[in-house]
Specification:
The chain has seven helices and seven strands, in the order βαβαβαβαβαβααβ. With 242 residues, the chain is an alpha/beta fold. The protein has a single domain (7-185, 218-240), classed as NAD(P)-binding Rossmann-like Domain (Rossmann fold). The longest helix is centred in the middle third of the chain and has 29 residues, at 103-131.
Length: 242
């Protein structure tokens, strides 16, 4: 198994793509710690892993709070002695015309989609640098040009810049950082973007109509994530799926 006894945190790992990544890492031998604010989903995740004959650790961690993330990462390292993998699955945009933005809305989009990734990566790096090994992973999307997603796109562009710096500063410590741009993948969370109105349905149809193979699946996205986590020679890359 590719990740036998590796210690992996999956932030936002109890639902959608995050859950598929969590299950994939577990089946490949990793000891997984799943963070999510949805406590019901965490309970369901525990039950599912138990049915597979395993156990996992879970925690309700607000990844937009740097010090909460730092404390939770330290707890993992104190218990297991190391941290090998950090996967940040938290994020999501809200459609709003740029002209209607408020400063508060702009900061909310940055906090949820950029600061959350920084918090997960930075607190993990402190330990990965010492052990000279680590795998960091996040998810990308539009980095601009999509009407209604200016804040989200700017945050994702910031994530790519963060990745580039981590690669430049920490490759010699055998730390990689990568991302997947999964294309549209229906999950309970992603579908909330499209409200049940003619406009919302039109937005959904517009996205799906541009996908030659139709919407992606969480299982296919997770497979790509695991392949990248397993390769020590790939870093700073954003893999775009159709």
């Amino acid at each position: 198994m590719r990740f036998q006894d590796k210690i992996a945190i999956i932030a936002g790992g109890a639902g959608g793509i995050g859950k598929a990544v969590s299950l994939g890492l577990f089946k490949e031998g990793a000891k997984i710690i799943v963070w999510d604010l949805n406590t019901s989903a965490l309970d369901e995740m525990k039950q599912e892993i138990n049915q597979l004959g395993g156990t996992i650790s879970t925690a309700s961690v607000d990844v937009t709070d740097y010090y909460a993330v730092e404390s939770a990462v330290n707890d993992v390292v104190n218990e297991y002695g190391r941290l090998d993998i950090m996967v940040s699955c938290v994020g999501g945009g809200t459609f709003k015309p740029l002209i209607e933005y408020t400063p508060e809305f702009w900061l909310k989009e940055q906090n949820y989609n950029l600061n959350s990734v920084f918090n997960c990566f930075h607190t993990s790096l402190k330990h990965m640098v010492k052990q000279e090994y680590g795998r960091l992973f996040c998810f990308m999307s539009t980095t601009g040009g999509v009407p209604g997603l200016a804040g989200y796109g700017a945050a994702k562009a910031g994530c790519k810049a963060l990745m580039d710096n981590i690669k430049a500063e920490h490759s010699r410590q055998h730390i990689t950082v990568n991302a997947v741009l999964p294309s549209f993948t229906p999950t309970p969370f992603s579908m909330k973007t499209f409200n049940d109105t003619p406009e919302g349905k039109a937005q959904y149809e517009s996205i799906v109509s541009r996908m030659p193979l139709g919407p992606n699946t969480v299982e296919n996205v997770a497979k790509t994530v695991l392949d990248l986590l397993d390769n020590e020679r790939i870093s700073g890359q954003v893999i775009t799926l159709m």
